Amino acid sequence: xxxxxxxxxxxxxxxxPGTLGGHRRGRLYGRxxxxxxxxxxxxxxxxGQRVFFADEATAIAAGYRPCAVCLPDEYARWxxxxxxxxRRPEPPPA
Length: 94
Prior knowledge:
The protein is an alpha+beta fold. It contains 3 helices and 6 strands; from the N terminus they run E-E-E-E-H-E-H-E-H. The protein has helices at 35-42, 56-61, 72-79; strands at 2-5, 11-14, 20-23, 28-31, 50-53, 65-66.
């Protein structure tokens, strides 16, 4: 069983692994093979704040933004979207 983050930002059990990973405190999501995330994990960080999503739509609905390193096109669209809030939402309690 895997633990994924849902549309509401809350964890739920899933029989399938997530297709995207994210960082709870940074409120960002990216590919599971993201070089930036893998470097952080290798340094001993990140793991305690790691979350997983079934898909990109769920990550976005949960209030996460795309990673600039592994999803540069998605990040550029997000950064230039006039509808996005300039204020970062509060992360869910740990």
